[in-house]
Amino acid sequence: MKCSIWVPAQYAGEGQQEEWPTPGRQWEPARGAESIRRAFELFDIAVEAGFDMVSVAEHHYGHSSLVPSPIVIAATLAERYPDVTIGILGPVLPLTNPVRVAEEIAMVDVLSGGRTIVGFFRGVPGEQLVYGTNPEVTSDMLREALALVLHAWTEPETFGWEGRNYRFRTVSVFPRPLQQPHPPIVQSATTPEAAAWSGAHGHMLGLFAPALSAERAQATAAAFRAARDEHGIPASPEDVLYRARVYVADSDEQAAADVETYEIGNLRRTMSPSPQRAAAAGRVLSALFAASGPTHAGPRPTHGDAPPPAMLRPDFVGSPDSVVAQIRESQATIGWGFLDGLFTSPGLPHEKARRSLELFAREVLPQLAQ
Question: What's the rounded Cα separation, in Å, for the pair 218 and 243?
């Protein structure tokens, strides 16, 4: 099993109202600097503990993450940590110029000595609004943009692109990635059909734990492995990356108390405009997962439903021994072998997030390595 840490670099906004989008009046330079210091403290702990990868993801306009440009942070990580993989997981392609993204990731891959893994995503509904992108076409934009990025990395000659969403008269990405033909690609999927597409194209599979019941994740991963096998592409558990929220405490009782006190893992908090609009935020989240199909057991959620319970608490939570048991059960059920753990949560004090990560590093990781 491989292990990664995803650090969103939450804003050190203690005492401020959490809302999305966060108004600029809440920005304080000292808090911003402290936010980045805390983020790199967590990265440092993970790397020193032997984590295989550090990862970043693109998010906009909120307390929950100060990483609107994951490629910028990835370049810093590559310099700071010379011996681990850099997970750019990743740019929200429909919000960007795909050719520019291809160029910048190629630069980071060269700067890192060929240590990147890259994932491209559509983005959640709120983030599709930040630059005025039409959410109705972002799925099509993502597919075309991914094809354009891969073509830009592999086509030996200068070319033009005339697509439905993108048009470029001249494309000639230079430098190219150090890894040839390109860095490993992680494609997120919430359905077996999407996972089969990733497997057939030789990509890795990314699963986001809150978006999938265990049964759905198992079927999705199975479709990925079947497609790999059908196309003669070897597959290992480490080709399935599982991004999950993790909270470790000294005891199950302490973990349960902390989850309730700090609402650890509650995704609704990251999209809530204000307490008065919390119900609306819940409907947005329900719509997000409904758009991907029946990803949870039971009927498909509708716009009026509350978010599924899995979205409101960590995916792995408890004492070190309990978390080990939960992770092993999840691995055995779904068949993943690459954990991308999120150890922070809006509202969780940094000291508790650090303590959780330290317990994971000291008491969970060694058991998983056995």
Answer: 14
Instruction: Please tell me whether residue 301 adopts helix, strand or coil conformation.
Output: coil
Q: What is the 3-state secondary structure (H, E, C) of 1-67?
A: CEEEEECCCCCCCCCCCCCCCCCHHHCCHHHHHHHHHHHHHHHHHHHHHCCCEEEECCCCCECCECC
pLDDT band at 286 (very low <50, low <70, confident <90, very high): low
Peptide bond into 24 cis (omega under 30): no
Before 175, cis peptide (omega within 30)? Answer: yes
Q: How far apart, in whole angstroms, are the C-alpha atoms of residue 245 and residue 59?
A: 17
Cα Rg, the chain, nearest whole Å: 20
Contact 268, 281 (CB under 8 A): yes
Q: Bridge partners of 347?
A: none
In whole angstroms, how far apart are CA 67 and each of 74, 294, 351, 368? 10, 30, 21, 30
pLDDT, tens digit, 9 for 90 and up, residues 240-257: 999 999 999 999 999 999
Q: Where are the alpha helices (DSSP H) in 89-137?
A: 98-111
Residue-wise pLDDT tens digits, 121-164: 988 767 777 888 888 899 899 999 999 999 999 999 999 999 99
C-alpha to C-alpha distance for 201 and 112, rounded to whole angstroms: 25
Question: Tokens 């402290």 identify what position?
Answer: 34
pTM of the model: 0.90
